[in-house]
Amino acid sequence: MATATLTTTPRSRASAGTTTGAAVLSVLGTVLAIGIAATSLLVVPAALLIAFGPSLLSLF
Predict the structure, then answer these.
(1) What is the pTM of this model?
(2) Distance CA 48, CA 52 (A)
(3) What distance in Å separates the CA atoms of residue 56 and residue 54, rounded to the nearest whole number?
(4) CA-to-CA distance for 55 and 34, rounded, in angstroms?
(5) How many Å apart are CA 14 and CA 35, to the nearest integer?
(6) For site-directed labelling of 39, which of 11, 23, 30, 49 has its Cα 20 to 30 A away?
């Protein structure tokens, strides 16, 4: 029975830095996407207020 010897090479610094950079960009992208979604939730009420605010205020 033949056995093979496997050698492991340590991760290079460039690969670790690339992985860390990708993780940071992923988190920043997620934060940006959540910020855009939260801002878009404010657009509809603001548009309604601008469009119908004067006519609603004239009723009082």
Answers:
(1) 0.52
(2) 6
(3) 5
(4) 33
(5) 31
(6) 23
